[in-house]
Amino acid sequence: MTAPVGVGFVGTGWMARAHAHALHTLGHVAPLSRPVRLVAIAGRDAARTEAAAAQLGFERHTTDWRTVVDDPDVDVVANLASNDMHLSPSVAALELGKSVLCEKPLASTVEEAERMVAAADASSGLAVCGYNYRFVPAVRLARDLVTAGRLGAVRHVRGAYLQDWAGTAASRRGWRFSDPVEGSSVGDYSHVIDLVRWLVGEPVAVAAVIGTLDEKAEGLHPATVGEDHEDWYAALLRTAPGVTVSLEASRVATGRKNGHYIELFGSQGSLSWILEDLNRLQVYFREDEAELTAGFRDVLVTEPGHPYLEHWWASGHILGWEHTFAHEWLDLLRALDTPGQVPEGLPVFADGLAAVRIAAAIRDSALTGSWASLQ
Amino acid sequence: MTAPVGVGFVGTGWMARAHAHALHTLGHVAPLSRPVRLVAIAGRDAARTEAAAAQLGFERHTTDWRTVVDDPDVDVVANLASNDMHLSPSVAALELGKSVLCEKPLASTVEEAERMVAAADASSGLAVCGYNYRFVPAVRLARDLVTAGRLGAVRHVRGAYLQDWAGTAASRRGWRFSDPVEGSSVGDYSHVIDLVRWLVGEPVAVAAVIGTLDEKAEGLHPATVGEDHEDWYAALLRTAPGVTVSLEASRVATGRKNGHYIELFGSQGSLSWILEDLNRLQVYFREDEAELTAGFRDVLVTEPGHPYLEHWWASGHILGWEHTFAHEWLDLLRALDTPGQVPEGLPVFADGLAAVRIAAAIRDSALTGSWASLQ
Amino acid sequence: MTAPVGVGFVGTGWMARAHAHALHTLGHVAPLSRPVRLVAIAGRDAARTEAAAAQLGFERHTTDWRTVVDDPDVDVVANLASNDMHLSPSVAALELGKSVLCEKPLASTVEEAERMVAAADASSGLAVCGYNYRFVPAVRLARDLVTAGRLGAVRHVRGAYLQDWAGTAASRRGWRFSDPVEGSSVGDYSHVIDLVRWLVGEPVAVAAVIGTLDEKAEGLHPATVGEDHEDWYAALLRTAPGVTVSLEASRVATGRKNGHYIELFGSQGSLSWILEDLNRLQVYFREDEAELTAGFRDVLVTEPGHPYLEHWWASGHILGWEHTFAHEWLDLLRALDTPGQVPEGLPVFADGLAAVRIAAAIRDSALTGSWASLQ
Amino acid sequence: MTAPVGVGFVGTGWMARAHAHALHTLGHVAPLSRPVRLVAIAGRDAARTEAAAAQLGFERHTTDWRTVVDDPDVDVVANLASNDMHLSPSVAALELGKSVLCEKPLASTVEEAERMVAAADASSGLAVCGYNYRFVPAVRLARDLVTAGRLGAVRHVRGAYLQDWAGTAASRRGWRFSDPVEGSSVGDYSHVIDLVRWLVGEPVAVAAVIGTLDEKAEGLHPATVGEDHEDWYAALLRTAPGVTVSLEASRVATGRKNGHYIELFGSQGSLSWILEDLNRLQVYFREDEAELTAGFRDVLVTEPGHPYLEHWWASGHILGWEHTFAHEWLDLLRALDTPGQVPEGLPVFADGLAAVRIAAAIRDSALTGSWASLQ
């Protein structure tokens, strides 16, 4: 019988709940070569951590993250703590040759992210950054279509991440508002930056503006970078092969609940996707014009042949947001079986660093009022 | 410490997977007064049942459903087997005072369903019929709006359940095609009948036609009831208070993957919902017309205040189909804590019987070419 | 120089406005072999008719419809009056060898409609019935796809016409409420019946229920046919080749403004269309499934190659409802150039009669509570 | 009897067709204080102009625009010629005290636009710039909601104009490709700039990139401003009160036919609109959250109380793109009755100049790679 993979968590918040849910789920929906064992969980507050351990099914709990990292039964450390805690436990685990799944943004500064990548490079462990939206079946199908050339040459891309949870004065509390950078829209919404990179390649320059909500939570004003909360930003990105991307992110966009959106226009076709309807992909093929029946196809990505769907239900039965984590862990666990090979699409620390660099360039550009180079 | 609730499964198919997923999930997303223990699972094929037990996390497995029913550690029997197996294990468990969750349709004939209701009436156990779509948050919100009178008097209702999985000759294999009634569209799509009953009350008469796909899977022809496969039906229902409902169901509706749809028109407002986008509810209020801003509101039912959402993620993070089962079990398990009180909205065997009677009336009407009475 | 085609109107209401708009429009958007001359208009009220003549650009006006019919300059009589006026002016004009465009429903009774068809058969004039939705470019494209076999064998069809203008007590005034049949939902919404016939063929039997709003405009009750206003109906139709159609129409469906809807499911593909978004057609091809990119295509029917679009604007510039009439007149006027040949798709009096017969069968079925035969 | 308003056209292209259509339409849908007379039309090609005069219903035609401008029967000159012809006829007409409706963009350079505004300021004539999308009922409703404060303080705005007509090598012919600036996306899509200004106020700074399709109509590259065709641009705009607007326009966005889009996020509500579905407005009110029924309302802007709808059809009958011109002329003609008063919402030459300045700033920013000031 194969030994289980031991998993340890650092962090007890809703990301911990989502990841634990995925690990509980995986065992009974997908065939794994080794079972998963939830060994230990660490949190700052003892009582809350004990409760989390009980609810999420961990064997042990502690208020010291080092105990989790050092635990000999822990093979993979999931770093699900707040952003300022991403660095140390991740590096410590990698130095022990353990694998890490660290939530995004990888770090709050480029310097920290670079240290994390260095640790990953020096380690035999796998270092994954939690860009879970790569694991949405519809997004994976989009990637497959782009890679197969079905859209031709991509011309321009529109990305957005629009929410409204921080749009009222009463909602602006907690750790995300204790600091201008921690939990900012620039960092939090780096998902859309990662999708852009993954789908169409590296940006080389960025022009951006950042906005902050005024005191009464009414209008938006230009942010003083480093001082004001980053509630909104818009950015233009030029990629290596040409002009390509417009981005926008907001946490004060009244009425948008999870408007993580991406739209690609190519010479032979186009596609769009939005997280609120994550099981659908809109695809347009120019070749359909010949028969006068061209139009964006509303593809419900729940067929058995679609990415990851072999593990799930019958056609037409949609998956929830939480299963992005199941797919993420599935690919991570399989990668453990083939050391040295990172499967296509698994976001690693280098991806996390790239996103942090772009976020930094967004801030630079907003600060200087000029284009910032990413080369 | 409280004793766990022991659950036994009869059936190892994809419904077993879905229910097991729910039971694994519940423990770590919602507070339960007693933990759940997956005690035993029964299936016809020994090897397949052993594998299912391993994958789904059951302690024991057997090819004899009586072993599960009789198991002293089993408090609740989930009857997830094919329709012809709904009767005996359910009745046996109820006779032992155990609770049962039986999948729909409750039975293939009215007579069998009546025996099951009689067993339920005579038992101290809870007898639940698996109409899981009552547990979709958006559907529950719809029910709340109707109950609160926000739509005024309901005038007419449109329901449908459109799929296409049986639309090709190659797909028409397996137990659903071994018999004209087992696995028919009339029985399988009784979900929409249940929603109609639950949302607007009892039908008293029905006129219907049933269709069967021809041999080459091209056109649809009138079915000879009792001989042909029931691939499609359409029905008109009159309810006690007036004219109200049109229904249609198909498993050969090319392009529709899970078009379970309901639309209610009331004197003060209207609403519609479709399973393919199960997290959304469309709601119209006539009072909005005064300000010239009336229109169906596209409500994303993922806010903390929405039904069942307190247990889940942040606003805008959609749930998958599978969590209908989690909510179903949540309400069932809570009902065990308050014997004698069936919580509002929990579908019981009497609901299953009512749906079977309507299905029978649909067949009667299709057979005779006249209205069938349900009184 | 070619002599103009003289047109006379019977009726001054909003249909007169819509048809006049079309005739004013045609001259400057499409090449006509003969110009159109608006000769005379007749209405019941002298002052209102004079005003209509001035506004709509008619040379002459009268309160006697015979004056229009007899006018030697009038070649085509457009009968746009209320339903009870459809018979006499249409027959009189046809008896003079003139052409007629009569609004739908052709007549209130089968007997009247039969007399009108007899007059049409005996006349050298063209007798057109105003089913203008055949002239929506998207509907014409749908017809082209069906005719070309792109959907394979049609299996079943869903049609509906849902509005809410008669849903409040205050709105239930005027001639449509002076009589249970005139202006009823069964007759008014015969558009959807015509589309079904045109797209998939003749019904042979019908089962239906009709509903009437109660006094306080709250709930819907079964109508006493011939006595109550017909506010809603639902019908099942069997066509010659098999089971096919479910229909529903309502003028009390709160929130639906012009929900004229049709949905066809075939063995190779499917389509749907709704009047509120009349420039779009949703089309699904099963063959797209092979590449995992099947989905309903949202076709914006405004390309130069689409039906009727050669006369209009650039791609993507949508047309309004009113241009259905322009297309209708375009085909009618062209048909005048080729006597004896009725162009494909032009709805004639025989089509009007067929729809009246189906409406009568709907009433028969609702009255008797049994299926009504149409053979 | 009142004297008619004489209208003269400069230009015979599809804009001439659209404006003539509007003028023919107006007379029979809306009450005008004075009738409209189509006096004369000028075009470069004699034969084509004669044909246009016949088709569109003009009394006279000429190849010299001065003949139209000088015609004593012409009160209003509609300048519908190519962009390089906007200046001279407009100024000449204004100098004669005549009114002008000049298509957009007002001019190709700021200097020309300034001369046109100077001529307008010095004239007793009315000088209107053809931003016809202000006359879409749904857009006017959006403006009314913003003005009434129903959205609270506007925070940020997303605008786009996405088409694909220039996306293939074969399509890149004609005058729009004879010059890098004439007919560029920056100028052509100034509609979206005008809507932004009208709805939320003046931009004060802009950062932009412009792209050009490569020779083989595959990828997009940064444009050399002044040399390359401007096929795409994206811009960030800061307005006087704060950070607000992201814009994007493309004529190579495969699959988008008329994606003119605007989305406003305010503190109390939000709205969005797209030209392809021009009769609809999506509106969100935060106050609806209290009842758990908040969602974007899909408002079909065809009710009698909606802007401009009093002149049209019954509820739910959608209008086409072409009627934006009818509404534009309606407001222009009414403004002639009240000299000195420009009705709210009528776009004048100053609006045209403002849009030209923003277009120039977009080019400046793209050229210099830095923010361009608009103050």
Chain oligomer state: homotetramer
The count of DSSP E runs of length 2 or more, i.e. the number of strands of chain A, is 16
What is the overall number of helices of chain A?
A: 10
Largest interface: A-D, 55 and 55 residues
Low-confidence stretches of chain A: none
The class by helix and strand makeup of chain A works out as: alpha/beta
Rg over CA atoms of chain A: 21 Å
How are helices and strands ordered from N to C of chain A? EHEHEHEHEHEHEHHEEEEEEEEHHE
Give the overall shape of chain A: globular
What portion of the residues of chain A fall into strands of 2 or more residues? 25-35%
Overall pLDDT metric of chain A? 94
Helix content of chain A: 25-40%
Main features:
homotetramer; 375 residues; alpha/beta; 10-stranded mixed beta sheet; 6-stranded parallel beta sheet; globular
SSE layout and pairing:
4 copies of one chain form a homotetramer.
Chain A: E1 5-10, H1 14-29, E2 36-42, H2 46-56, E3 60-62, H3 65-70, E4 76-79, H4 87-95, E5 99-102, H5 110-122, E6 127-129, H6 137-147, E7 154-162, H7 185-188, H8 190-200, E8 203-213, E9 220-222, E10 232-239, E11 242-250, E12 259-266, E13 269-274, E14 280-285, E15 296-300, H9 323-336, H10 349-368, E16 372-373
Parallel strand pairs in A: 1-2, 1-4, 2-3, 4-5, 5-6, 7-11
Antiparallel strand pairs in A: 7-12, 8-9, 8-10, 8-16, 10-11, 12-13, 13-14, 14-15
Describe this protein's structure.
Chain A contains 10 helices and 16 strands. In chain A, a hairpin with a 2-residue loop joins strand 12 (259-266) and strand 13 (269-274). In chain A, the strands form 2 sheets. In chain A, strands 7, 8, 9, 10, 11, 12, 13, 14, 15 and 16 form a 10-stranded mixed beta sheet that branches. Chain A has a 6-stranded parallel beta sheet with strand order 3-2-1-4-5-6, with helices on both faces. The first copy, chain A, is α/β, with parallel strands linked by helices. Helices cover 31% and strands 25% of the residues of chain A. Chain A has helices at 14-29, 46-56, 65-70, 87-95, 110-122, 137-147, 185-188, 190-200, 323-336, 349-368; strands spanning 5-10, 36-42, 60-62, 76-79, 99-102, 127-129, 154-162, 203-213, 220-222, 232-239, 242-250, 259-266, 269-274, 280-285, 296-300, 372-373. Chain A starts with a strand and ends with a strand. At the A-D interface, strand 7, strand 8, strand 9, strand 10 and strand 11 of A face strand 7, strand 8, strand 9, strand 10 and strand 11 of D.
